[in-house]
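Consider the following input, taken from an annotated entry for NADH dehydrogenase (Quinone) (Desulfofundulus kuznetsovii).
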Amino acid sequence: MKSLMDKCCEKCFHSPSSPCQDYIKCRQQGPLCHDDENCRARFKEFLENIHLPADSSRRQVLICAGTGCTSSGSRKLVDALREELARHGLQDKVTVKITGCHGFCEQGPLMIVEPQKVFYTRVQLEDIPEIVASHLVGGQVVERLLYVDPATGEKSLTYETVPFYAKQKRLVLANCGHINPEEIADYVASDGYLALTKALFEMTPEQVIEEVKISGLRGRGGAGFPTGMKWSFVRAAEGDKKYVVCNADEGDPGAFMDRSVLEGDPHAVLEGMLICGYAVGADEGYIYVRAEYPLAIHRLKIAIAQAEECGLLGDNILNSGFNFRIKIKAGAGAFVCGEETALLTSIEGNRGMPRPRPPFPAQKGLWGKPTNINNVETFANVPLIIRNGGAWYAAMGTEKSKGTKIFALTGKVNNTGLVEVPMGITMREIIFGVGGGIRDGKRFKAVQIGGPSGGCLPEEQLDLPIDYESLTSAGAIMGSGGLVVMDETTCMVDVARFFLNFTQAESCGKCTPCREGTKRMLEILTRICEGQGKEEDIETLERLARVVKNTALCGLGQTCPNPILSTLRYFRDEYEAHIRDKRCPARVCQALLVYTINPEKCTGCGSCARACPAGAISGEKKQPHVIDISRCIKCGNCMQKCKFGAVEKA
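Applying the prediction step yields:
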Protein backbone atom coordinates (compact mmCIF):
# COMPACT_ATOMS: atom_id res chain seq x y z
CA MET A 1 0.00 0.00 0.00
CA LYS A 2 1.41 3.36 -0.99
CA SER A 3 2.10 5.86 1.76
CA LEU A 4 0.74 9.38 1.80
CA MET A 5 4.26 10.59 0.98
CA ASP A 6 4.32 8.49 -2.20
CA LYS A 7 0.96 9.90 -3.26
CA CYS A 8 2.24 13.43 -2.70
CA CYS A 9 5.29 12.75 -4.82
CA GLU A 10 3.13 11.43 -7.64
CA LYS A 11 0.95 14.53 -7.44
CA CYS A 12 4.06 16.67 -7.56
CA PHE A 13 5.26 15.13 -10.78
CA HIS A 14 1.85 15.20 -12.43
CA SER A 15 0.87 18.77 -11.58
CA PRO A 16 4.04 20.87 -11.79
CA SER A 17 2.12 24.14 -11.84
CA SER A 18 1.20 23.83 -8.16
CA PRO A 19 3.11 20.90 -6.66
CA CYS A 20 3.64 22.44 -3.26
CA GLN A 21 0.01 23.28 -2.76
CA ASP A 22 -0.88 19.65 -3.58
CA TYR A 23 1.63 18.41 -1.06
CA ILE A 24 0.37 20.71 1.68
CA LYS A 25 -3.23 19.62 1.05
CA CYS A 26 -2.16 15.99 1.39
CA ARG A 27 -0.13 16.69 4.50
CA GLN A 28 -3.11 18.36 6.15
CA GLN A 29 -5.17 15.19 5.75
CA GLY A 30 -3.11 13.33 8.33
CA PRO A 31 0.36 12.41 9.56
CA LEU A 32 2.96 11.08 7.14
CA CYS A 33 3.36 7.33 6.96
CA HIS A 34 6.77 6.46 8.34
CA ASP A 35 6.52 2.72 7.58
CA ASP A 36 7.76 3.10 4.04
CA GLU A 37 11.57 3.25 4.08
CA ASN A 38 11.49 5.10 0.78
CA CYS A 39 9.64 8.07 2.31
CA ARG A 40 12.79 9.99 3.13
CA ALA A 41 14.36 9.57 -0.30
CA ARG A 42 11.10 10.36 -2.03
CA PHE A 43 10.59 13.56 -0.08
CA LYS A 44 14.14 14.64 -0.85
CA GLU A 45 13.40 14.01 -4.50
CA PHE A 46 10.14 15.91 -4.11
CA LEU A 47 11.97 18.96 -2.78
CA GLU A 48 14.56 18.82 -5.55
CA ASN A 49 11.88 18.76 -8.24
CA ILE A 50 9.53 21.32 -6.81
CA HIS A 51 10.79 24.31 -8.83
CA LEU A 52 8.13 26.27 -10.63
CA PRO A 53 8.60 25.93 -14.40
CA ALA A 54 10.01 28.85 -16.33
CA ASP A 55 7.03 30.08 -18.31
CA SER A 56 7.38 33.35 -20.17
CA SER A 57 3.60 33.71 -20.37
CA ARG A 58 3.04 33.41 -16.62
CA ARG A 59 1.68 36.74 -15.38
CA GLN A 60 1.64 37.91 -11.81
CA VAL A 61 1.70 41.18 -9.93
CA LEU A 62 3.89 41.37 -6.82
CA ILE A 63 2.85 43.96 -4.25
CA CYS A 64 5.06 44.80 -1.29
CA ALA A 65 3.31 44.03 2.00
CA GLY A 66 6.19 44.77 4.34
CA THR A 67 5.68 47.12 7.26
CA GLY A 68 6.77 50.22 5.32
CA CYS A 69 4.56 49.73 2.28
CA THR A 70 1.68 48.40 4.39
CA SER A 71 1.71 51.61 6.39
CA SER A 72 1.45 53.45 3.06
CA GLY A 73 -1.66 51.51 2.07
CA SER A 74 -0.34 48.59 0.01
CA ARG A 75 -2.89 46.16 1.45
CA LYS A 76 -5.66 48.28 -0.04
CA LEU A 77 -3.85 48.06 -3.39
CA VAL A 78 -4.07 44.26 -3.26
CA ASP A 79 -7.84 44.31 -2.79
CA ALA A 80 -8.36 47.03 -5.38
CA LEU A 81 -6.21 45.23 -7.95
CA ARG A 82 -8.10 41.96 -7.51
CA GLU A 83 -11.41 43.76 -7.92
CA GLU A 84 -10.20 45.55 -11.05
CA LEU A 85 -8.85 42.32 -12.55
CA ALA A 86 -12.19 40.64 -11.93
CA ARG A 87 -13.96 43.53 -13.64
CA HIS A 88 -11.86 42.85 -16.75
CA GLY A 89 -12.26 39.07 -16.49
CA LEU A 90 -8.56 38.55 -15.70
CA GLN A 91 -8.89 37.04 -12.24
CA ASP A 92 -7.81 33.59 -13.52
CA LYS A 93 -5.09 34.88 -15.82
CA VAL A 94 -3.16 37.26 -13.57
CA THR A 95 -2.03 36.28 -10.08
CA VAL A 96 -1.84 38.94 -7.38
CA LYS A 97 0.79 38.09 -4.78
CA ILE A 98 1.84 39.87 -1.60
CA THR A 99 5.55 39.90 -0.78
CA GLY A 100 7.86 41.11 1.92
CA CYS A 101 9.93 44.27 1.79
CA HIS A 102 11.59 45.07 -1.55
CA GLY A 103 14.06 47.25 0.31
CA PHE A 104 13.50 50.51 -1.57
CA CYS A 105 11.32 51.98 1.17
CA GLU A 106 11.82 55.52 -0.10
CA GLN A 107 9.69 54.70 -3.16
CA GLY A 108 6.87 52.62 -1.62
CA PRO A 109 4.27 51.30 -2.12
CA LEU A 110 6.09 49.17 -4.70
CA MET A 111 4.74 46.87 -7.39
CA ILE A 112 6.41 44.47 -9.84
CA VAL A 113 4.61 43.08 -12.89
CA GLU A 114 5.96 39.72 -14.01
CA PRO A 115 7.27 38.25 -16.22
CA GLN A 116 8.57 41.55 -17.67
CA LYS A 117 9.82 42.66 -14.20
CA VAL A 118 8.27 46.11 -14.70
CA PHE A 119 8.88 48.13 -11.56
CA TYR A 120 6.27 50.65 -10.39
CA THR A 121 6.89 53.07 -7.51
CA ARG A 122 4.66 55.04 -5.14
CA VAL A 123 1.56 53.32 -6.44
CA GLN A 124 -1.74 54.72 -5.16
CA LEU A 125 -5.32 53.42 -5.28
CA GLU A 126 -6.22 55.75 -8.12
CA ASP A 127 -3.42 54.22 -10.24
CA ILE A 128 -4.89 50.69 -10.20
CA PRO A 129 -7.46 51.11 -13.04
CA GLU A 130 -4.78 52.54 -15.33
CA ILE A 131 -2.30 49.76 -14.50
CA VAL A 132 -4.91 47.12 -15.36
CA ALA A 133 -6.33 48.81 -18.44
CA SER A 134 -3.08 50.10 -19.93
CA HIS A 135 -0.57 47.46 -18.87
CA LEU A 136 -2.32 44.20 -18.05
CA VAL A 137 -4.95 44.56 -20.79
CA GLY A 138 -3.37 46.88 -23.33
CA GLY A 139 0.26 45.92 -22.89
CA GLN A 140 1.36 49.54 -22.43
CA VAL A 141 3.63 50.34 -19.47
CA VAL A 142 2.42 53.19 -17.22
CA GLU A 143 5.55 55.30 -17.57
CA ARG A 144 4.65 57.92 -14.99
CA LEU A 145 4.94 55.25 -12.27
CA LEU A 146 8.43 54.13 -13.29
CA TYR A 147 11.42 55.06 -11.14
CA VAL A 148 13.23 58.22 -12.24
CA ASP A 149 16.86 58.67 -11.22
CA PRO A 150 17.04 62.14 -9.62
CA ALA A 151 20.67 62.54 -10.72
CA THR A 152 20.24 61.71 -14.43
CA GLY A 153 16.50 61.99 -15.00
CA GLU A 154 16.51 58.53 -16.63
CA LYS A 155 13.61 56.13 -16.13
CA SER A 156 14.12 52.48 -15.19
CA LEU A 157 11.71 49.96 -16.70
CA THR A 158 12.68 46.99 -14.49
CA TYR A 159 13.86 46.78 -10.88
CA GLU A 160 17.14 45.25 -12.07
CA THR A 161 18.05 48.49 -13.85
CA VAL A 162 17.28 50.77 -10.89
CA PRO A 163 20.70 51.91 -9.55
CA PHE A 164 19.56 51.16 -6.00
CA TYR A 165 19.23 47.45 -6.87
CA ALA A 166 21.78 47.15 -9.68
CA LYS A 167 24.71 47.89 -7.37
CA GLN A 168 23.69 45.41 -4.65
CA LYS A 169 24.42 41.71 -4.23
CA ARG A 170 21.22 40.30 -2.79
CA LEU A 171 21.69 36.82 -1.33
CA VAL A 172 19.85 36.86 2.00
CA LEU A 173 17.37 39.34 0.49
CA ALA A 174 17.00 37.42 -2.79
CA ASN A 175 13.49 36.20 -1.92
CA CYS A 176 12.32 39.37 -0.17
CA GLY A 177 9.96 41.15 -2.51
CA HIS A 178 9.65 38.15 -4.83
CA ILE A 179 7.94 35.37 -2.86
CA ASN A 180 4.83 35.30 -0.70
CA PRO A 181 6.19 34.93 2.85
CA GLU A 182 2.90 33.43 3.98
CA GLU A 183 3.14 30.50 1.53
CA ILE A 184 5.64 27.72 2.12
CA ALA A 185 5.10 26.76 -1.52
CA ASP A 186 6.90 29.86 -2.70
CA TYR A 187 9.87 29.22 -0.42
CA VAL A 188 10.21 25.58 -1.45
CA ALA A 189 9.95 26.58 -5.10
CA SER A 190 12.93 28.88 -4.51
CA ASP A 191 15.16 25.98 -3.36
CA GLY A 192 13.86 26.23 0.19
CA TYR A 193 14.63 23.34 2.56
CA LEU A 194 17.01 21.70 0.07
CA ALA A 195 19.86 22.69 2.41
CA LEU A 196 18.10 20.95 5.30
CA THR A 197 17.67 17.71 3.34
CA LYS A 198 21.31 17.89 2.25
CA ALA A 199 22.45 18.34 5.85
CA LEU A 200 20.23 15.55 7.21
CA PHE A 201 20.89 12.93 4.54
CA GLU A 202 24.31 13.70 3.11
CA MET A 203 26.29 15.29 5.96
CA THR A 204 27.20 14.53 9.55
CA PRO A 205 26.77 17.28 12.16
CA GLU A 206 30.54 17.73 12.18
CA GLN A 207 30.60 18.16 8.40
CA VAL A 208 27.89 20.82 8.62
CA ILE A 209 29.93 22.75 11.18
CA GLU A 210 33.07 22.39 9.06
CA GLU A 211 31.24 23.77 6.01
CA VAL A 212 30.14 26.80 8.03
CA LYS A 213 33.74 27.27 9.19
CA ILE A 214 35.00 27.09 5.61
CA SER A 215 32.48 29.77 4.61
CA GLY A 216 34.03 32.25 7.03
CA LEU A 217 30.56 33.39 8.13
CA ARG A 218 30.75 35.67 11.14
CA GLY A 219 27.89 36.69 13.41
CA ARG A 220 25.90 39.51 11.81
CA GLY A 221 24.49 40.78 15.08
CA GLY A 222 27.42 42.74 16.47
CA ALA A 223 30.95 41.65 17.25
CA GLY A 224 31.34 39.29 14.30
CA PHE A 225 32.36 36.12 16.14
CA PRO A 226 33.03 33.18 13.75
CA THR A 227 29.77 31.26 13.45
CA GLY A 228 31.27 27.82 12.81
CA MET A 229 33.51 28.14 15.84
CA LYS A 230 30.57 29.06 18.06
CA TRP A 231 28.64 26.05 16.76
CA SER A 232 31.58 23.76 17.47
CA PHE A 233 31.70 24.96 21.08
CA VAL A 234 28.04 24.08 21.58
CA ARG A 235 28.50 20.74 19.80
CA ALA A 236 31.37 19.85 22.11
CA ALA A 237 29.62 21.02 25.28
CA GLU A 238 28.36 18.28 27.57
CA GLY A 239 24.64 18.15 28.24
CA ASP A 240 21.56 16.06 27.58
CA LYS A 241 19.66 19.17 26.44
CA LYS A 242 20.78 21.97 24.16
CA TYR A 243 19.07 25.02 22.67
CA VAL A 244 19.26 27.17 19.56
CA VAL A 245 18.21 30.80 19.98
CA CYS A 246 17.61 33.38 17.25
CA ASN A 247 18.22 36.93 18.42
CA ALA A 248 15.64 39.09 16.63
CA ASP A 249 15.60 41.80 19.30
CA GLU A 250 16.48 44.57 16.86
CA GLY A 251 16.50 47.72 18.96
CA ASP A 252 18.84 50.13 17.15
CA PRO A 253 17.15 53.40 16.13
CA GLY A 254 16.63 53.36 12.38
CA ALA A 255 17.43 49.65 11.97
CA PHE A 256 14.99 47.26 10.29
CA MET A 257 17.18 44.54 8.74
CA ASP A 258 15.99 41.63 10.87
CA ARG A 259 12.38 42.77 10.73
CA SER A 260 12.40 42.81 6.94
CA VAL A 261 13.95 39.35 6.65
CA LEU A 262 11.43 37.88 9.09
CA GLU A 263 8.57 39.58 7.24
CA GLY A 264 9.82 38.71 3.76
CA ASP A 265 11.49 35.29 4.08
CA PRO A 266 10.74 33.69 7.46
CA HIS A 267 11.36 30.12 6.30
CA ALA A 268 15.01 30.95 5.56
CA VAL A 269 15.50 31.72 9.24
CA LEU A 270 13.65 28.57 10.31
CA GLU A 271 15.75 26.46 7.95
CA GLY A 272 18.96 28.02 9.27
CA MET A 273 17.89 27.24 12.84
CA LEU A 274 16.99 23.65 11.89
CA ILE A 275 20.41 23.10 10.34
CA CYS A 276 22.07 24.62 13.40
CA GLY A 277 20.02 22.41 15.71
CA TYR A 278 21.09 19.31 13.77
CA ALA A 279 24.73 20.43 13.83
CA VAL A 280 25.01 21.25 17.54
CA GLY A 281 22.73 18.50 18.83
CA ALA A 282 19.77 20.63 19.94
CA ASP A 283 16.11 19.69 19.70
CA GLU A 284 14.49 22.99 20.66
CA GLY A 285 14.80 26.57 19.49
CA TYR A 286 13.52 30.02 20.42
CA ILE A 287 13.09 33.13 18.31
CA TYR A 288 13.31 36.19 20.56
CA VAL A 289 11.58 38.94 18.59
CA ARG A 290 10.47 42.41 19.61
CA ALA A 291 6.75 42.73 20.36
CA GLU A 292 6.88 45.97 18.34
CA TYR A 293 7.21 43.76 15.24
CA PRO A 294 3.64 42.39 15.00
CA LEU A 295 3.84 41.59 11.28
CA ALA A 296 7.11 39.68 11.71
CA ILE A 297 5.60 37.68 14.57
CA HIS A 298 2.43 37.00 12.55
CA ARG A 299 4.41 35.64 9.59
CA LEU A 300 6.72 33.63 11.82
CA LYS A 301 3.69 31.93 13.36
CA ILE A 302 2.35 31.10 9.90
CA ALA A 303 5.74 29.79 8.76
CA ILE A 304 6.18 27.61 11.85
CA ALA A 305 2.69 26.15 11.48
CA GLN A 306 3.25 25.41 7.78
CA ALA A 307 6.63 23.79 8.44
CA GLU A 308 5.04 21.62 11.12
CA GLU A 309 2.21 20.64 8.77
CA CYS A 310 4.73 19.61 6.14
CA GLY A 311 6.79 17.53 8.54
CA LEU A 312 9.74 19.95 8.44
CA LEU A 313 9.43 20.83 12.12
CA GLY A 314 8.59 18.54 15.00
CA ASP A 315 9.46 14.91 15.72
CA ASN A 316 11.38 12.62 13.39
CA ILE A 317 11.76 15.28 10.67
CA LEU A 318 11.65 13.70 7.20
CA ASN A 319 11.90 10.30 8.91
CA SER A 320 15.52 11.14 9.76
CA GLY A 321 15.34 10.66 13.51
CA PHE A 322 16.04 14.36 14.06
CA ASN A 323 13.59 16.22 16.31
CA PHE A 324 13.36 20.00 16.48
CA ARG A 325 10.70 22.47 17.56
CA ILE A 326 10.70 26.27 17.52
CA LYS A 327 8.90 28.67 19.84
CA ILE A 328 8.48 32.45 19.64
CA LYS A 329 9.26 34.69 22.60
CA ALA A 330 8.01 38.27 22.22
CA GLY A 331 10.33 40.74 23.94
CA ALA A 332 9.02 43.78 25.78
CA GLY A 333 11.24 46.27 23.97
CA ALA A 334 14.25 46.64 26.28
CA PHE A 335 17.35 47.44 24.20
CA VAL A 336 19.59 45.60 26.66
CA CYS A 337 17.83 42.33 25.79
CA GLY A 338 19.71 42.37 22.52
CA GLU A 339 22.73 41.34 24.62
CA GLU A 340 22.77 37.55 24.59
CA THR A 341 22.83 36.83 28.31
CA ALA A 342 20.10 39.40 29.02
CA LEU A 343 18.06 37.84 26.22
CA LEU A 344 18.38 34.38 27.77
CA THR A 345 17.37 35.74 31.18
CA SER A 346 14.27 37.27 29.58
CA ILE A 347 13.29 33.98 27.87
CA GLU A 348 13.53 32.31 31.29
CA GLY A 349 10.86 34.70 32.52
CA ASN A 350 13.07 37.07 34.51
CA ARG A 351 13.94 40.73 34.07
CA GLY A 352 16.31 41.03 31.11
CA MET A 353 19.67 41.83 32.70
CA PRO A 354 23.08 40.62 31.55
CA ARG A 355 25.13 37.98 33.36
CA PRO A 356 28.88 37.96 33.87
CA ARG A 357 30.84 35.88 31.34
CA PRO A 358 32.34 33.27 31.57
CA PRO A 359 30.56 30.92 31.58
CA PHE A 360 29.50 31.68 28.02
CA PRO A 361 26.11 30.54 26.67
CA ALA A 362 27.82 27.80 24.65
CA GLN A 363 28.62 26.09 27.98
CA LYS A 364 25.86 27.39 30.22
CA GLY A 365 23.05 29.27 28.53
CA LEU A 366 19.28 28.93 28.56
CA TRP A 367 18.20 27.30 31.84
CA GLY A 368 21.85 26.42 32.40
CA LYS A 369 22.06 24.30 29.24
CA PRO A 370 24.50 24.71 26.29
CA THR A 371 22.95 27.27 23.95
CA ASN A 372 23.82 28.62 20.52
CA ILE A 373 22.74 32.20 19.81
CA ASN A 374 22.88 33.85 16.39
CA ASN A 375 20.89 36.69 14.93
CA VAL A 376 18.35 36.64 12.08
CA GLU A 377 20.75 37.52 9.26
CA THR A 378 23.30 34.94 10.40
CA PHE A 379 20.75 32.11 10.35
CA ALA A 380 19.38 33.27 6.97
CA ASN A 381 22.87 32.85 5.48
CA VAL A 382 23.18 29.23 6.61
CA PRO A 383 20.90 27.55 3.99
CA LEU A 384 22.80 29.36 1.24
CA ILE A 385 26.12 28.09 2.59
CA ILE A 386 25.02 24.48 2.98
CA ARG A 387 23.29 24.43 -0.39
CA ASN A 388 26.12 26.04 -2.36
CA GLY A 389 29.13 25.12 -0.24
CA GLY A 390 31.36 27.02 2.16
CA ALA A 391 33.94 27.75 -0.54
CA TRP A 392 31.30 29.47 -2.67
CA TYR A 393 30.47 31.81 0.19
CA ALA A 394 34.11 32.39 1.12
CA ALA A 395 34.83 33.61 -2.42
CA MET A 396 32.88 36.79 -1.62
CA GLY A 397 34.07 39.59 0.63
CA THR A 398 37.50 40.22 2.12
CA GLU A 399 40.14 37.99 3.66
CA LYS A 400 38.62 38.05 7.14
CA SER A 401 35.07 39.23 6.42
CA LYS A 402 33.25 36.93 3.99
CA GLY A 403 29.94 37.12 2.18
CA THR A 404 27.51 40.02 2.16
CA LYS A 405 26.06 42.36 4.75
CA ILE A 406 22.60 43.94 5.00
CA PHE A 407 22.40 47.61 6.00
CA ALA A 408 19.47 49.85 6.83
CA LEU A 409 20.45 52.98 4.91
CA THR A 410 18.77 56.02 6.46
CA GLY A 411 19.33 59.70 7.14
CA LYS A 412 20.20 62.53 4.73
CA VAL A 413 20.57 60.28 1.68
CA ASN A 414 18.42 60.24 -1.46
CA ASN A 415 17.66 56.51 -1.53
CA THR A 416 16.82 55.21 1.92
CA GLY A 417 16.02 51.56 2.40
CA LEU A 418 17.41 48.10 2.91
CA VAL A 419 20.59 47.24 1.00
CA GLU A 420 22.72 44.10 0.79
CA VAL A 421 26.28 44.53 -0.42
CA PRO A 422 29.48 42.45 -0.47
CA MET A 423 31.85 42.81 2.45
CA GLY A 424 34.73 45.08 1.50
CA ILE A 425 32.62 47.62 -0.37
CA THR A 426 33.41 51.21 0.57
CA MET A 427 31.19 53.71 2.34
CA ARG A 428 31.38 55.90 -0.75
CA GLU A 429 30.00 53.13 -2.98
CA ILE A 430 27.04 52.57 -0.64
CA ILE A 431 26.16 56.20 0.04
CA PHE A 432 26.73 57.64 -3.42
CA GLY A 433 26.30 54.52 -5.56
CA VAL A 434 23.40 52.65 -3.99
CA GLY A 435 22.10 55.56 -1.92
CA GLY A 436 22.23 58.12 -4.70
CA GLY A 437 24.15 60.76 -2.71
CA ILE A 438 23.12 63.43 -0.23
CA ARG A 439 19.69 65.05 -0.29
CA ASP A 440 19.09 68.57 -1.57
CA GLY A 441 22.62 68.85 -2.93
CA LYS A 442 24.12 69.32 0.52
CA ARG A 443 27.62 68.27 1.51
CA PHE A 444 28.31 64.93 3.15
CA LYS A 445 29.54 65.27 6.71
CA ALA A 446 29.54 61.90 8.48
CA VAL A 447 28.05 58.44 8.58
CA GLN A 448 27.13 56.69 11.79
CA ILE A 449 27.53 52.92 11.51
CA GLY A 450 26.65 50.24 14.03
CA GLY A 451 23.64 51.73 15.78
CA PRO A 452 23.78 53.71 19.03
CA SER A 453 26.88 51.73 19.97
CA GLY A 454 28.61 52.51 16.70
CA GLY A 455 30.90 55.30 15.61
CA CYS A 456 30.65 58.39 13.42
CA LEU A 457 33.07 58.41 10.48
CA PRO A 458 33.97 61.59 8.52
CA GLU A 459 34.45 62.29 4.82
CA GLU A 460 38.10 61.18 4.84
CA GLN A 461 36.90 57.67 5.76
CA LEU A 462 34.48 57.35 2.83
CA ASP A 463 36.83 55.01 0.98
CA LEU A 464 37.26 52.76 3.99
CA PRO A 465 36.35 49.15 3.08
CA ILE A 466 33.48 47.86 5.20
CA ASP A 467 34.73 44.88 7.15
CA TYR A 468 35.01 44.09 10.84
CA GLU A 469 38.68 44.93 11.28
CA SER A 470 38.68 48.15 9.22
CA LEU A 471 35.70 49.57 11.07
CA THR A 472 37.16 48.72 14.48
CA SER A 473 40.44 50.43 13.62
CA ALA A 474 38.49 53.52 12.52
CA GLY A 475 36.65 53.70 15.85
CA ALA A 476 33.33 52.19 14.73
CA ILE A 477 31.75 48.74 14.67
CA MET A 478 29.75 46.75 12.15
CA GLY A 479 26.99 46.19 14.68
CA SER A 480 23.76 44.85 13.30
CA GLY A 481 23.91 47.10 10.25
CA GLY A 482 22.45 50.53 10.92
CA LEU A 483 23.85 53.17 8.56
CA VAL A 484 22.79 56.78 9.25
CA VAL A 485 24.02 59.42 6.80
CA MET A 486 24.50 63.02 7.99
CA ASP A 487 25.01 66.22 6.04
CA GLU A 488 26.53 69.62 6.80
CA THR A 489 23.50 70.66 8.85
CA THR A 490 24.22 68.00 11.50
CA CYS A 491 25.88 68.93 14.80
CA MET A 492 28.20 66.09 15.83
CA VAL A 493 28.10 67.03 19.52
CA ASP A 494 24.32 66.85 19.39
CA VAL A 495 24.54 63.48 17.61
CA ALA A 496 26.73 62.08 20.39
CA ARG A 497 24.24 63.40 22.93
CA PHE A 498 21.30 61.85 21.06
CA PHE A 499 22.77 58.35 20.97
CA LEU A 500 24.06 58.51 24.53
CA ASN A 501 20.64 59.68 25.71
CA PHE A 502 19.23 56.51 24.13
CA THR A 503 21.76 54.11 25.63
CA GLN A 504 21.62 55.81 29.04
CA ALA A 505 17.84 55.40 29.12
CA GLU A 506 18.17 51.75 28.03
CA SER A 507 20.88 50.85 30.55
CA CYS A 508 19.63 48.14 32.90
CA GLY A 509 21.58 49.72 35.76
CA LYS A 510 23.12 46.47 36.96
CA CYS A 511 26.75 47.59 36.78
CA THR A 512 28.13 50.87 38.18
CA PRO A 513 30.27 51.89 35.16
CA CYS A 514 27.29 51.88 32.79
CA ARG A 515 24.68 53.13 35.27
CA GLU A 516 26.72 56.05 36.58
CA GLY A 517 29.14 56.61 33.70
CA THR A 518 26.50 57.09 31.02
CA LYS A 519 24.61 59.51 33.24
CA ARG A 520 27.70 61.65 33.90
CA MET A 521 28.70 61.68 30.23
CA LEU A 522 25.18 62.69 29.20
CA GLU A 523 25.23 65.53 31.70
CA ILE A 524 28.48 66.85 30.25
CA LEU A 525 27.25 66.61 26.66
CA THR A 526 24.01 68.36 27.55
CA ARG A 527 25.93 71.13 29.28
CA ILE A 528 28.15 71.61 26.22
CA CYS A 529 25.16 71.78 23.87
CA GLU A 530 23.54 74.38 26.12
CA GLY A 531 26.57 76.64 25.96
CA GLN A 532 27.76 75.94 29.49
CA GLY A 533 30.70 73.70 28.64
CA LYS A 534 34.07 74.01 30.34
CA GLU A 535 37.58 73.57 28.95
CA GLU A 536 38.17 70.45 31.05
CA ASP A 537 34.93 68.79 29.80
CA ILE A 538 36.58 67.27 26.74
CA GLU A 539 39.28 65.56 28.78
CA THR A 540 36.73 64.39 31.36
CA LEU A 541 34.48 62.99 28.64
CA GLU A 542 37.33 61.11 27.06
CA ARG A 543 38.47 59.62 30.35
CA LEU A 544 34.97 58.61 31.40
CA ALA A 545 34.27 57.04 28.00
CA ARG A 546 37.36 54.83 28.22
CA VAL A 547 36.60 53.77 31.78
CA VAL A 548 33.06 52.74 30.85
CA LYS A 549 34.30 50.99 27.70
CA ASN A 550 36.83 48.94 29.67
CA THR A 551 34.82 48.10 32.77
CA ALA A 552 31.11 47.77 31.90
CA LEU A 553 29.53 44.36 32.36
CA CYS A 554 27.98 43.80 28.92
CA GLY A 555 28.25 44.87 25.31
CA LEU A 556 25.78 47.72 25.72
CA GLY A 557 27.94 49.47 28.31
CA GLN A 558 31.21 48.58 26.62
CA THR A 559 30.21 50.08 23.27
CA CYS A 560 27.94 52.99 24.26
CA PRO A 561 30.92 55.44 24.47
CA ASN A 562 31.74 54.84 20.78
CA PRO A 563 29.73 57.83 19.46
CA ILE A 564 31.57 60.10 21.93
CA LEU A 565 35.03 58.71 21.22
CA SER A 566 34.57 58.77 17.44
CA THR A 567 33.17 62.33 17.34
CA LEU A 568 35.99 63.51 19.63
CA ARG A 569 38.46 61.81 17.31
CA TYR A 570 37.16 63.27 14.06
CA PHE A 571 35.14 66.36 15.06
CA ARG A 572 36.99 67.71 18.08
CA ASP A 573 36.86 71.22 16.63
CA GLU A 574 33.06 71.22 17.03
CA TYR A 575 33.36 70.44 20.73
CA GLU A 576 35.89 73.25 21.07
CA ALA A 577 33.62 75.70 19.20
CA HIS A 578 30.75 74.89 21.57
CA ILE A 579 32.93 75.37 24.64
CA ARG A 580 35.29 78.21 23.70
CA ASP A 581 33.29 80.24 21.20
CA LYS A 582 29.82 79.39 22.53
CA ARG A 583 28.91 78.63 18.92
CA CYS A 584 27.38 75.62 17.17
CA PRO A 585 29.02 75.42 13.71
CA ALA A 586 26.05 73.48 12.31
CA ARG A 587 23.57 75.95 13.85
CA VAL A 588 21.62 73.18 15.54
CA CYS A 589 22.07 73.66 19.29
CA GLN A 590 19.27 76.06 20.16
CA ALA A 591 20.91 77.61 23.22
CA LEU A 592 23.90 78.75 21.13
CA LEU A 593 21.92 80.32 18.31
CA VAL A 594 21.61 84.07 17.71
CA TYR A 595 18.69 85.20 15.56
CA THR A 596 19.05 88.38 13.54
CA ILE A 597 17.11 90.11 10.77
CA ASN A 598 18.86 91.03 7.55
CA PRO A 599 17.67 94.62 6.82
CA GLU A 600 18.30 94.18 3.09
CA LYS A 601 15.80 91.35 2.91
CA CYS A 602 13.26 92.54 5.46
CA THR A 603 10.10 94.16 3.97
CA GLY A 604 8.63 95.15 7.30
CA CYS A 605 5.58 92.93 6.86
CA GLY A 606 5.47 92.24 10.62
CA SER A 607 4.89 88.47 10.35
CA CYS A 608 7.91 87.73 12.52
CA ALA A 609 6.83 90.18 15.23
CA ARG A 610 3.33 88.71 15.39
CA ALA A 611 4.80 85.21 15.72
CA CYS A 612 7.25 86.09 18.52
CA PRO A 613 5.86 84.91 21.91
CA ALA A 614 8.43 86.99 23.83
CA GLY A 615 7.78 90.31 22.08
CA ALA A 616 11.47 90.51 21.15
CA ILE A 617 10.91 91.88 17.62
CA SER A 618 10.11 95.50 16.87
CA GLY A 619 10.01 97.85 13.86
CA GLU A 620 7.83 100.21 11.91
CA LYS A 621 5.50 98.94 9.23
CA LYS A 622 7.28 98.48 5.88
CA GLN A 623 10.60 99.21 7.63
CA PRO A 624 13.31 96.64 8.56
CA HIS A 625 12.64 95.05 11.93
CA VAL A 626 15.16 94.13 14.63
CA ILE A 627 15.41 91.40 17.29
CA ASP A 628 16.23 92.23 20.90
CA ILE A 629 18.72 89.46 21.72
CA SER A 630 18.25 89.94 25.45
CA ARG A 631 14.55 89.08 25.18
CA CYS A 632 14.80 86.42 22.42
CA ILE A 633 13.95 82.91 23.70
CA LYS A 634 15.30 81.32 20.49
CA CYS A 635 12.10 79.47 19.62
CA GLY A 636 12.62 79.92 15.87
CA ASN A 637 9.04 81.01 15.17
CA CYS A 638 10.24 84.15 13.41
CA MET A 639 12.35 82.19 10.95
CA GLN A 640 9.48 79.84 10.17
CA LYS A 641 7.04 82.70 9.51
CA CYS A 642 9.32 84.89 7.40
CA LYS A 643 8.58 84.41 3.69
CA PHE A 644 11.56 86.44 2.51
CA GLY A 645 14.44 84.64 4.25
CA ALA A 646 15.25 87.78 6.20
CA VAL A 647 15.57 86.04 9.58
CA GLU A 648 18.97 84.42 9.91
CA LYS A 649 20.66 82.40 12.63
CA ALA A 650 24.34 82.27 13.52
